[in-house]
Amino acid sequence: MHQILILSGKGGTGKTTVASAFIHLSQAKAYADCDVDAPNLHLVMGNYETEGKQDYMGLRKASIDSEKCIGCDACRQVCRFDAIEAEPHYHVVNIACEGCRACAYACPQDAISFVDAKVGDLRLLERGDEHFSTATLIMGSGTTGKLVNQVKNQLKKAADPNEVAILDGSPGIGCPVIASLSGVDLALMVAEPSVSGIADLKRVIASARQLQVPVAVIVNKYDMHEQKSAEIEVFCFKEGIPFLGKIPYDREAVRALNQGLTLDQISSNGSEAVKSIYYRTLHLARETMKG
Amino acid sequence: MLLWVKSTPDSTMGTDLTVAVLSGKGGTGKTLVSVNLAAVAQKATYVDCDVEEPNGHLFFKPTILSSRVVTVPKPVVDQSLCDGCRICTEACAFNALALIGKQLLVFNEVCHSCGLCTTLCPKKALTEVEQPLGVVRQGRHGTVSFEDGILDIGQSEAVPLIKALLKKKHKDLVVIDSPPGSGCLVTEAILGADYCLLVAEPTRFGAHNLAMVHELVQILGKPCAVLLNKNEESASNPSKEYALAHNLSIAGTLPYDPKLAALASEGLIASEELGHYHAYFSNLLETIRKEAADASDPHTQR
Amino acid sequence: MIIAIPAEANSLDSATCVSFGRAPYYCLYNTETESSTFMTNLAADSAGGAGIQAAQDLVDQSIGTLITFRLGENAAKVLQAAEIAILKALNLSVADNISALQEGKLAPLGEVHPGFHHGH
Asked: What residues in B contact A139, CB-CB < 8 Å?
C-alpha cells in the first residue's frame, strides 16, 4: 500500500481540512485518521455501510477480589497514586491506577490481580470498496504509537496493495507521529505562518528526514502573516524541500466543513488553492514511489 | 443587625468557588477566558495548570513572590550492592530499568515513581532520591493571586506538578486554567473543581472536542456549562447545536472580535483595557456563581 | 557475531522496520553460521518504555551489532552500555541491509532521538 501522509507538527493548522479534500479529490479507496487523541476526519466523511469494531487494550489495571481481601490496608498505604479507596469496601479507582503493581506485591492475601482495561475502539468503516481506519479512546486515556500502528495495520490488511492511501497524521513530534510516518511515500506538511508554527514545522521535518521519508510543505492561512509565510518558503528553498503552494484564510472553508463538505467541493479561493496543491502533491508522490 | 449589614455580599464576592476552565483542544481561548474571569473578581486566585505550556503569566505579568522546586522520588542504584538478580527489571511495569551485564540502568523519564523496585530489592541496592520535576510559583497582579507550574524540559510526568499546585486550599474565587485535551492531566486539574466552564469554537471539529470534554466532566460528576467563543451570528454554530441537543447549559457567547484577538496576541487583558469586556466577564462570573450555587443546592439539582 | 535488524515481517526479504522499539520482529543474523532467526518483539505491545525493553531483550541475545533507522535516547543508552555497535539502516530489505553491512556500506548511526515517552 502506498501512503501519502498529511502532517503539521502544531495542532489546529488545517491538517484534516487538507486530508479530507485530498481523499475526496482522489476518490481514495483507503484512508486513515492517525490523530487518535482527537480524531476529526470522520466528521466530514459522511456515512458508511458497515463498521467493524475491535477492543483496544491499554495498561492492565489492579482489581481487588473482595472475598479474599481482609481489609489490612497494605495496598492503600503502598499506592502512590491514591488509586485505592477503603470505603465502602477496598476497591480500585480505575482512572487513577497506573498499573504499577505495587499493591499486588504488598497484598498478603494475593487478593489483587491485574486485568486488561479496554481504553478504546479500533474502527474500520467501509462503503463499497472504500476503507476508512480510525480509532476512538475512552475518556481520560492518553495514546501511544501502539494504537497508531494498529490503525495503519488494519488499513493495510483491508486495502488493495496497489492503493494510494491518504493518512491524516497526529500532531506533535512524539511517538504517535513516528508511528504514522512509518512506511510513508510522501509526507505533506501543513504549516501555519507563525513563530510556533515554524518551530514545529522544523522539528517534524527533522523527524521525517531521519526516517528517510520524502517531505513537501504547504502553508495554510498564509495571509494571516505573509512575512512568516515567505519565511517558510525561503526555508524550504534553502533546505531543498519542495514547496507545493499556499492556501488563503477562507471563511467559506469553515462553512463547508460545518455542512459536511470537503474544501474542494465548494467554490472559493481556498478550494482552488487546495486543488492545485493536490495535483502537485500527486505528481511528486508518483516520483517518490518510482524512486 | 450590624452583622447583617456587614455580610451583605458584593455581587462578585461570596462563597468559595473553584471554577475550572477547559477545552478539548489547544487554541480555543481557554487562557483568555480564565485570565479575564480572575481579573474581574474582587478577590481571586488564578492557577495555571497547563504546566507543559503555561501562558497565564504572559497576561498577568505577575510579581513573583515565591518559587518552589517540586520533586519526585526516583530510584538510584548502588552498583556495589546490586547482584543482578533482575527482580526489579522484571517487576517494573513501565520498563524503566535495564540490566546490562552487571550494570543496572534507571530511566527517570519513564519511571512513574511508584516505589516498587526499591521495596522489592533484596540487596537494598536501590534507594529513592528526590529529583526535580519542575517549579511552582506564586505571585500577584493587582487583586489577583497568581500561581503556575512549569514542567522541566524533557519531563513527561506532569501529574505530580499539578497535584503540588492544587494541594493548597484557597478561599474565595479560584480559576483553574486546565491543560488542553481530555486526558489524565485534565482529570487531575479539575478533580477539585466545583464547576467547569467548557470553551468551544464554532466548528464541527470544535463541537466534537466539546463533546469529548463534556463526557469527561460528566464522568467526574461536575456541574458545567459551555462558553461559545468566536461566535458569528450569521453563521451556524455546531457547538451551540451540541449544547442545545445535550442539555448543556450555555453560560455565555463571546462574539468573534479581531480586536480581542489582537489584545490577546500582545498579552493584554481585555477586561482591563476595554470597559465592555469588563462588564462582559463580570456578568459571566455572576452567571457562573449562580449556576454553581444552584447545582450545589440539593433542592434545585436535576 | 550476531547482527540484529528490526523487521516488518519474519522473512529475509521483508522491509527493514523504521521503528526500533515497536518493530514486530527482529532478524538475528549469525555471521559465523550465516544463518538467520526471527524473534518476535514482545516489547512492541508495552504502553511505555518499549525501546528500553526491546534493547534489553536484544542484549540478552548477545548481539554485537544493530542496524536501524532510528533509535530513542533510552534504547541507545542500553545498547551503548552493552557496547553494541549501532549502524544506520538503508532503505532496503533485511537481507540487503545485511549484505550492505558486510560490504562495509553502512555508517554509524549519528543522531539519537530525544525520548518520546508520554507513557499512559
From this structure: 182, 212, 215-216, 219
Neighbours of A81 (CB within 10 A): 20
Determine which helix (DSSP H) or strand (DSSP E) holds A289, and give its type and residue range: helix A269-290
CA B103 to mean position of chain CA atoms: 40
Domains of chain B: 13-43+172-294 (3.40.50.300), 73-131 (3.30.70.20)
C-alpha cell at A33: 485518521
A250-289 burial code (b ≥16 CB/10 A, e <16): beebbbbbbeebbbbebebebbebbeebbebbeebbeebe
Would you say residue C110 lies in a domain?
no
Task: Give the one of A142, A149, A210 whose C-beta lies nearest to C120's C-beta.
Answer: A142
- Tens of pLDDT, residue by residue over B107-133, are 887 888 999 999 999 999 999 999 998
Topology of the domain comprising A2-57+120-290: Rossmann fold (3.40.50)
* Helices marked H in A92-246: 102-106, 145-158, 175-181, 195-210, 226-239
What element of type H or E holds C2? strand C2-7
How many domains, in total, are found in chain C? 1
Question: pLDDT for B64-111, tens place per residue?
Answer: 999 999 999 999 999 999 999 999 999 999 889 999 988 999 988 788
- pLDDT, mean of residues B192-206: 92
pLDDT tens-digit profile of A32-61?
999 887 888 998 898 999 999 999 887 789
Q: Is a pLDDT exceeding 60 seen at residue A74?
A: yes
Q: Which residue in C17, C21, C15 sits closest to C47, CA to CA?
A: C21
Q: Identify the contact set of chain B against chain C, taking CB-CB distances under 8 A.
A: 89, 94-96, 98-101, 103, 105, 107, 109-110, 112, 154, 156-157, 183-184
Q: Which of C78, C80, C87, C93 is nearest to C17 (CA)?
A: C93
DSSP states of chain B = -HHHHHTPPPTT--S-EEEEEE-SSTTSSHHHHHHHHHHHSSSEEEEE--TTS--HHHHH-PEEEEEEEEEEEEEEE-TTT-----HHHHH-TT--EEEETTEEEE-TTT-----HHHHH-TT--EEEEEEEEEEEEEEEETTEEEEEEEEPTT----HHHHHHHHHS---SEEEEEPPSSSSHHHHHHHTT-SEEEEEE-SSHHHHHHHHHHHHHHHHTT--EEEEEEEE-TTS--HHHHHHHHTT-EEEEEEE--HHHHHHHHTT--HHHH-HHHHHHHHHHHHHHHHHHHHHHSTTT--
Q: Residue C19 sits in a domain of what CATH number? A: 3.30.420.130
Chains touching A, CB cut-off 8 Å, 3+ pairs = B, C
Q: What CA–CA distance (Å, rounded) separates B52 from B246? A: 32
What's the whole-number average pLDDT of chain B?
87
Confidence band of B267 (pLDDT split at 50, 70, 90): confident
**Which residues pair with residue C87 across a beta bridge?**
C67, C108
CATH topology of domain A61-115: Alpha-Beta Plaits (3.30.70)
State the Cα–Cα distance between residues C49 and C98, nearest whole angstrom.
Answer: 27
Beta bridge partners of A113: A63
